[in-house]
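Deliverable D5.2: sample structural annotation.
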Amino acid sequence: MDLNLQDRVVLVTGANRGIGRAIAEAAVAEGARVAVIGRDAAAGEETVRALGPERASWHLCDVSDEARIGATVAEVADLHGRIDAVVNNAGRFGGSPLAQLTPEALREGLDTKVVGAMLVTQAALPHLRRSDQARVLNISGITAQRIMPGVAVTAIANSGMVTLTAYLARELIDDRINVNCLMPGYTLTGAWRARAEALAAAEGRSFDEACQEILRRQDMGHSRWGEAREIAEVAVFLLSAQAGFVNGASFRVDGGQFLAVQR
């Protein structure tokens, strides 16, 4: 299937690792050019080397920094000549129990995820309006819809992304900019991998056993971990011409993990 992404310019935040990097890889595989946005210069530069500097560019930016966002989006547009899609993936994982949660921690989580997504989208709007296949894809998570101990900040921010998606889709419909949201399930990247490694060390388990134990403790012992590429494959479809009639939607991509706790 031709997704019509050849030479489209896709800006991906939080693209130097995990799901963001997988989305960047999948977009490049479909012929897109990708602007890799992140805070870790070493990881970002390595990502661009892996993707190929002829198809990807690295841009250092903390999406909670409003001034830097505007400069970064302008830098991407100047370098590539256009911006056809924005993938708002940047975010922070975790959060203490609400009784101990500080306002600073909550603000940091919301600033990176929800406010950052809004600011990046706002900065990119003039360029998206000139595209004949404009897309905004927000990456949330299933914690937007289910309670999971110890990640309150992430869950609150993820819920905000779902609502932000709906409002952006409605307000941008006349501009023919499609805005959608993905809610990945438990995906074995980054912070989850670190948690599994810590559990394995603390309880004398193998890494695979620790991974399965985490799922079991969330009443999902029958399930499996998702892979970043599986999220990315859905993401690039939503960026494609074939998804032209998909707008304002939020999709769980979780292998049925959400359904497991509804039984």
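Annotation notes: Residues 188-225 form one domain. The chain has a mean pLDDT of 92.
The annotation will be released with the project's public dataset once the embargo ends.
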